């Protein structure tokens, strides 16, 4: 099992519409990626490591797939549509990491 982490770094003045992200973007991702997408988790940042520290990331989506090949096969044909929707909810470029779940 692998996890694709899509992380939106917090920065002053950035725009991020969490309602659009959760209510429209992620359902679009689910629909397009189909059954290869096994699970999605969404984290909304609240704080950083210290009591007054802001979160490092405004939001993160954690997408689970059986393998990297399954992710690439599902994402590739729909990449333009998924990535093209990003400006509808944010002006932040996401950081993406693919990890093995141990």
From TrEMBL:
Signal peptide: none annotated. Residues 18-92 form the EthD domain. This is EthD family reductase. NCBIfam families: EthD family reductase. PANTHER family: BLR8190 PROTEIN. It comes from Aromatoleum evansii. Coiled coil: none annotated. InterPro entries: Dimeric_a/b-barrel, EthD_dom. Gene3D superfamilies: 3.30.70.100.
